[in-house]
Structure formats: C-alpha cells, structure tokens
Amino acid sequence: MREGTWLNLPSLSLPIKSLFTGYLLVAGLGLLMAGAQIMLTHGMADGKFGLSVDDIVYSYYGNREGSKLEAKLNGSMKDKATPQENFTLIKWARNGASEEEWKTTIKPIVEAKCAMCHANIPSLPNITKYEVMKERAKVDEGASVSSLTRVSHIHLFGISFIFFFIGLIFSMAIGFKYWVKALLIFTPFAFLIVDIASWWLTKINPNFAYFVIIGGFGYSLASTVMILTSLWQMWITPIRGGHSEENTWRDG
C-alpha cells in the first residue's frame, strides 16, 4: 500500500468531468469508426466480409497468385460492375494488360463504372489512365514500401496522441494497484508498436499476419477498459475526500 497525491476522477469538478467525458466519448467513437473502416477495406481483401488472417496477408504481403486489380474486383470493388465486366477486367490483367485491348474494351468499362470516384477523388488512383491501370494489373505484392512508410508515421504520431490523453485521464482512476494502472496505461503503446511492426514483417513473411490482429485487438481492449473505467468513476463512483479537486487516498 502506498500513499499518493494526485487528482482523482470521482472528485473532479463538473466542468473538468464534462471536458474529459466529451474527449473520451469522441475518442471511443473514433476507435469504433476506425474498426468499421478496417472491416470495409482490409476486411474485404479476400472477397469476404470480416477481418481474417487472409485479409491481412493480401493487404500487406499481397495475393501473389493474381493482381491488385483482381483482388479489388473480388473484394471491396466487387459490386461496382457486373460479374461479366469484372471477368473481362481480370482476364485482361492476366493476359498481360495490353494497351490495344485497353483502348477498345477495358477503358469504356472503367470510364462507365470507376471514373466517378477514381477520376475525381485525389486520394484514389486515377485508373482511367492506362499507365496507372497497368500497374494495378501487375502481380499483387501487397502494400508498397512508400505507402507503408506514409501510413506508419501517420498512425504512430496520431494514435499515440489518442492513447496519451486516454492514459492521462485514466491515471486519475482510484482503486487500482500502481503497477496495474501503469501496465494498462503502457499497454496500448506497446501493442501499437507490435501492430505497426507487424505490417512491415508481414510484407516480408505472411506468417506475421497474426501479430497484426493481436496488436490491433490488444490496444483496442486496453483503451476500452480505460475509457469505460474513467467514465464510470467520474459519474457513478461516489466522491472521495469531499469536493476538492486534489485529494490524498490510499491506492490499493
């Protein structure tokens, strides 16, 4: 048992509780939306809804039995064209993606079914251009090194800020042993590193795909525990030590 002096969640003033609650609710909703986005992108890499090891392998290592174009047409883009049009595009890619067939057969399909998004949204590849489409028709080797570098640094900087503030709020929780609280606060950061590192390792060896799922599940679970505990203690747990914002308590 140790004595510690620090703000505790039950005794915070109403404005501070409102501030923390707003942040936790928005951050929690953001994590849910991130999970939904993963389901709708990576989760469709194998053509089936729901995240699986195959989805992770196809996303980072690639499906080296086919092209990126084929993977998309069998996955998240499957319903954007008719089955016959999808078959025509896949056959064209498998036969070497000739420019002549592109002009006569493939480009009209792309302009009719794909251009609405791919020619107008800057974040999407403009596959109405033959050079861009030809790259998508090559054997799928998964995420490129440049895209992994870009997404990795965005996730490491952005998500670590989310975990920092969730952990800071949770550090004011009561009723936890110090080592348990410290472990919970550190856990999301550790699993985030595992998650990002596994992207790169899966790019080299598909067997590391399991660690991507473990990393994502680990930091999501730890964050959920801290968010729910913080909300419970701010609004349900009785105030300790009066209404002062700074109290001394025995941290069990």
Strand content: under 5%
The total strand number stands at: 2
Structural class: mainly alpha
Point out poorly predicted stretches. 1-5, 241-252
Query: What is the rounded distance between the termini?
Result: 6 Å
Sheet with most strands = 2 strands, antiparallel
Overall form: elongated
Proportion of residues in helical segments: 55-70%
Strand order of the largest sheet: 1-2
Count of all domains: 2
The average pLDDT is: 87
What's the tally of helices? 10
* Rounded radius of gyration (Å): 24 Å
GO molecular function: translation elongation factor activity
Protein name: Elongation factor-1 alpha
Organism: Thiomicrorhabdus heinhorstiae
Keywords: Elongation factor, Membrane, Protein biosynthesis, Transmembrane, Transmembrane helix
Structural topology:
Layout: E1 2-6, H1 14-40, H2 53-60, H3 68-73, H4 83-94, H5 99-113, H6 115-118, H7 130-136, H8 145-170, H9 178-204, H10 209-235, E2 247-251
Antiparallel strand pairs: 1-2
Can you tell me about this structure?
The protein is mainly alpha-helical and 252 residues long. It has 2 domains: 11-42 and 144-241; 65-136, no CATH class. The chain contains 10 helices and 2 strands, in the order E-H-H-H-H-H-H-H-H-H-H-E. The protein has helices spanning 14-40, 53-60, 68-73, 83-94, 99-113, 115-118, 130-136, 145-170, 178-204, 209-235, and strands at 2-6, 247-251. A two-stranded antiparallel sheet has the order 1-2. The longest helix has 27 residues, at 14-40. It is elongated and about 75 Å long. The N and C termini lie close together (6 Å). The relative contact order is 0.17. The model is unreliable at 1-5 and 241-252 (pLDDT under 50).
